[in-house]
Amino acid sequence: TMATTAMDVLVRLVGELEFRGGSPMHRNKPRKGPNLSAADAAERHLWADGAPFDGDVSWSEQAESLRTHPQPWRLHRALVLETLKQLQLIDRGITAVGDLNQLPSLKELSLTGNLLTSINGQQLPPKLEVLHCCTNLLESIAELSQGPPLLRHLGLSCNKLLSVDLEPDVWSRLVSLDLSWNQVADLSSVVENLAALDSLRSVVLAGNPCGLNKSFDGVASMFCCCSPAAGSGGGGAVCLLLFACCLLVQVLRTTLI
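RE: above sequence
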């Protein structure tokens, strides 16, 4: 079975942004003047309502703005791809990323609700800052850590991750990380790894097996001792957040048991 890549889906969606009666890539600017042929008159009519595009526009906030572009005949696929800044390909049956590194301006990407088992970091857009890959089939992010863009937020909730290993030099700008509802059991290993990320300010670990482990109680204080950044920089902020998580789990455990 051929893989359904995010890039293939995007190219198809851009191609489906059609004028009523034809594709923008194949339309010319309408002619003016009194001596119009029937075809020219019909074409001018297509532009008259100010909303020449049909098709799905849910995949980007910018796609909706294309409907009211003052000169839509100037638009073509390459231009749309080059200027796209926000993209959400949610629940599209995507199994691979594809060459999204061909999107030089993209800063925010959501691939939530697809069938991804891995993500190649080198295939992501070079200026990407926010990546949502929630509700997929990810068991590891090893490939994602190979040459990814300098992300500021990484959303990986509702996958099948057993552990997370983020190298400080690769993830130096990461501010927030969502690991909720995965299968992370070894909390101390995760905390030790995240302690080295100086920019990290927020971590979500709700819904992982580590919250039910008896050793979970002392992890926050252990993290404060072992973290080189504790008290100053990202490690300290993560420590406070995890300590709050510990208190919350204690309350829930007491309530349920």
